[in-house]
Amino acid sequence: MDDQTRMLASMGxxxxxxxxxVGDPDSVRKQQSxxxxxxxxxxxxxxxxxxTDESLDExxxxxxxxxxxxxxxxxxxxxxxxxxxxxxxxxxxxxxxPPDPQIMRLDNMLLAxxxxxxxxxxxxxxxxxxxxxxGGSPNDGSIExxxxxxxxxxxxxxxxxxxxxxxxxxxxxxxxxxxLLREQSRTRPISPKEIERMVAIIHRKFSSIQMQxxxxxxxxxxxxxxxxxxxxxxxxxxxxQATEVLNEYFYSHLSNPYPSEEAKEELAKxxxxxxxxxxxxxxxxxxxxxxxxxxFQEEANLYAVKTAVDAANVSAQASQANSPATxxxx
DNA sequence: CCATATGATTCAGG
DNA sequence: CCTGAATCATATGG
Length: 330
Prior knowledge:
Order of helices and strands: HHHHHHHHHHHHH
Helix content: over 70%
Radius of gyration: 40 Å
Strand content: under 5%
Number of helices: 13
Structural class: mainly alpha
Shape: rod-shaped
Distance between the termini: 82 Å
Largest sheet: none
Number of strands: 0
């Protein structure tokens, strides 16, 4: 844009001058060929100064008269053509790559993360993707999810408001420049094509800002993801009672420690954890038990006794119906 | 601060 | 899709 602006600006200056001596278009050349430049320049200067003495109405009228001159359109197009040829080499260079690959990549990423997509659909899509491994139970991972969703919504909101600001500023600026150029096209050769080109240039410049916005949004989402969705960062041990329940099941089914889906659901409910957490726990337990049975022998005995005692208690309670004297383990 | 425990994730295989 | 195995990253106890 810089080169063009400079060029247009300088031609604007010329425009003022040519308007000044339009009364006798050949005067300059004639006098120059006569070989008395100082005098001629003084002449021109005088004419210019005379303009400032004119009233606004007079100047306006003169301008209007010029604009209505029958030769004006022809002259205008000729000037445009000349200008087109003169500046051709300058632009021509950067005319391609309309679909910026990088911005498309960022767009796709933001869409996938549910930042730029539709309000509810995108968000739940991301949530579904996150919970996909969990088997679809509605309460899976809901503890951290609300937090994650809230933060994501926050990013989303910032992104959209910034994008809106950006779009507004862009169109405002574009309109401004277009109006300016259109206005100036009355006094200097600016073809509609050129205005179009200028708009394209502006948009290209602005799109780098947009890319920056999208890039930083992407970054924020990625950080958020790694913080919240990688639960390894927030590992919390299950409470004692939960591990007890799980161990009980494990050691009482030691010959086949593979809980069915229903069993997993029940264990999950008892332990206030998710089904996938139960699966994880059993997966880890099996492999670690198998790896070093000796290390777990004590634990195995403990739970074997425990279940035996519990069974005894249960049977005792069952056989004794409703006797209040049944001893309970603290 | 280190070693160990532990929940979660990743990846290969059936 | 489920599992075993390896691995990661944190929690915990000494």
